[in-house]
């Protein structure tokens, strides 16, 4: 596969550190001068822009939390005058008040550049038809991918999310070659294709899929690849830092290359905020070093992953992040036991459910929490359910109990009874926090 911008993607690390240091100093000066919140926080820590001379000094700077963006809602965190802001996006606000992010024309241009790199690493070029089934609107997925696809001169098909049958007709009629959507929606598309009698390998021209915006496992990747006949690659990003394209896998599927000429990554212990040694799993923290409108310093993502600094076979020198195993604020505490939805997913895959649709329902009776894991039966399981249902439930329950040390109830439900989403899958229903 080609590389869109080898100058930066394959830069020697020494040179990269120099570039990062230079850009970091400029950014710190920018936020100190333009964002009262940062000036206050830096003064409180006794740091001045002049104290930051290189990446080595990053640890002296304060962290930024999602709450800081909420407290300055909507625009008080911006480091550029509103007249220079050409676009805003916002997070969905499912975990509190929505947060607003802004971009100058240069920010949009840089974002398109980074998405162009991602698309090219999935094999896209001028002849590609990039089918964008990420939502357009305040969500960064749709428009983010769109501009990058135009930048490489590909043909963009801006379908946005939803209307699944129509998506498939469009893929067929317009000749989509690169599919971009959430991995859970990709599986739903594959399921609907089967129902419509469409064999993607025979009837469609899809070659690769760029899937992200939610956690997914390697087993789910295999499932998508075999059902759709595409190379399925993971893309990561978050609105506060930019949107999709903060990092992206190459064809070797061995970690997502972080666009380190634009973002500095650190890994910390989410509780003590200590910086962890290289290779440890912990919470990712990003510092934006080229953004004009919203350059966040040491932003606490809550996403748990680890970083690998070895050079990749593809030739890129950028550090690679592992798949995100969960969010520190997605972690459920059930009767004192920490549970990530991804741990349950791993158990389900281990017991042979290849593309599990599942939901965790957490409730409380009196003072005692309880967990019910609802798992959709595969059509094969459903057809001989009489003899298997109880045995399967028992097996899944025992595996969850031994993996997590937590008793739970497992309920197998009929195929297609768990809601399909066109965006991010909803894995947890926590009735304890629902009033
Ligand atoms: O989800 C941006 C995006 C759009 C990324 C399209 C990739 C593709 P937010 O809505 O702000 O932005 O949500 C960001 O989603 O902190 C992670 O918890 C999660 N996330 C994003 N990409 C991945 C991924 C977009 N590849 C939050 N794997 C992040 C796991 C992901 N989690």
What would you say this structure looks like, in words?
The protein is an alpha/beta fold and 435 residues long. The chain has two domains: 1-328, ANL, N-terminal domain (Rossmann fold, 3-Layer(aba) Sandwich); 332-433, ANL, C-terminal domain (GMP Synthetase, Chain A, domain 3, 2-Layer Sandwich). 33% of the residues lie in helices and 23% in strands. The chain has 13 helices and 21 strands. The protein has helices at 6-9, 13-34, 36-44, 66-71, 105-121, 140-151, 164-174, 183-195, 200-203, 218-228, 341-350, 379-383, 385-404; strands spanning 85-90, 100-104, 129-132, 155-157, 178-181, 208-212, 231-238, 243-249, 256-258, 263-268, 282-288, 299-305, 307-308, 320-321, 326-327, 332-334, 337-339, 358-365, 368-376, 409-413, 428-430. The mean pLDDT is 93. Bound molecules: 5'-O-[hydroxy(phenylacetyl)phosphoryl]adenosine. Residues 91, 134, 140-141, 212-215, 234-239, 243-244, 301, 303, 324, 327 line the site of 5'-O-[hydroxy(phenylacetyl)phosphoryl]adenosine (DLL).
Helical residue percent band: 25-40%
Query: What is the number of beta strands?
Result: 21
- Pairing-aware structural class of the strands and helices? alpha/beta
Could you tell me the CATH topology label of the largest domain: Rossmann fold
Global shape: globular
CATH class categorisation of the largest domain = Alpha Beta
Distance between the termini: 52 Å
Compounds present? 5'-O-[hydroxy(phenylacetyl)phosphoryl]adenosine
User: What does the oligomeric state look like here?
Assistant: single chain
The Rg value, from CA coordinates, equals 22 Å
> Low-confidence segments, ≥5 residues, pLDDT <50?
none
CATH architecture of the largest domain: 3-Layer(aba) Sandwich
| Percent of residues in beta strands | 15-25%
């Amino acid at each position: 596969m080609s590389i869109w911008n080898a100058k930066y993607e394959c830069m020697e690390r020494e040179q990269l550190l120099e570039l990062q240091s230079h850009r970091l100093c400029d950014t710190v000066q920018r936020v100190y001068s333009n964002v009262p919140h940062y000036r206050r926080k830096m003064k409180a820590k006794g740091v001045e822009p002049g104290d930051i001379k290189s990446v080595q000094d990053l640890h002296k700077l304060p962290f930024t939390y999602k709450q800081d963006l909420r407290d300055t809602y909507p625009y008080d965190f911006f480091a550029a005058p509103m007249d220079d802001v050409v676009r805003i996006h916002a997070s969905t606000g499912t975990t509190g008040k929505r947060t607003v992010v802004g971009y100058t024309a240069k920010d949009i241009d840089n974002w398109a550049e980074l998405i162009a790199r991602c698309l090219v690493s999935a094999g896209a070029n001028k002849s590609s038809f990039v089918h964008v089934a990420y939502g357009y609107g305040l969500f960064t997925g749709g428009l983010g991918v769109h501009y990058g696809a135009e930048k490489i001169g590909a043909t963009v098909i801006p379908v946005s999310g939803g209307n699944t049958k129509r998506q498939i007709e469009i893929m067929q009629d317009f000749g989509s070659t690169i599919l971009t959507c959430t991995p859970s929606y990709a599986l739903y598309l594959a399921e609907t294709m089967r129902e419509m009698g469409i064999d993607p390998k025979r009837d469609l021209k899809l070659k690769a899929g760029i899937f992200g915006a939610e956690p997914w496992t390697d087993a789910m990747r295999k499932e998508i690849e075999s059902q759709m006949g595409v190379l399925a690659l993971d893309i990561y990003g978050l609105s506060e830092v930019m949107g999709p394209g903060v990092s992206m896998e190459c064809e070797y599927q061995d970690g997502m290359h972080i666009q380190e000429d634009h973002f500095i990554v650190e890994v910390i212990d989410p509780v003590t905020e200590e910086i962890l040694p290289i290779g440890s799993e912990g919470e990712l923290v990003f510092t934006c070093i080229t953004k004009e409108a919203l350059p966040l310093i040491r932003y606490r993502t809550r996403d748990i992953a680890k970083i690998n600094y070895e050079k990749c076979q593809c030739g890129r020198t950028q550090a690679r992040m592992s798949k995100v195993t969960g969010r520190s604020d997605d972690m459920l505490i059930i009767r004192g036991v920490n549970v990530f939805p991804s741990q349950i997913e791993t158990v389900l895959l281990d017991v042979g459910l290849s593309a599990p649709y599942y939901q965790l329902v957490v409730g409380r009776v009196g003072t005692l929490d309880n967990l019910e894991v609802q798992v959709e039966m595969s059509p094969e399981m459903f057809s001989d359910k009489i003899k298997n249902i109880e045995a399967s439930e028992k097996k899944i329950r025992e595996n969850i109990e031994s993996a997590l040390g937590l008793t739970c109830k497992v309920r197998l439900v009929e195929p297609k009874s768990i809601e399909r989403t066109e965006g991010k899958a909803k894995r947890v229903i926590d009735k304890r926090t629902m009033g």
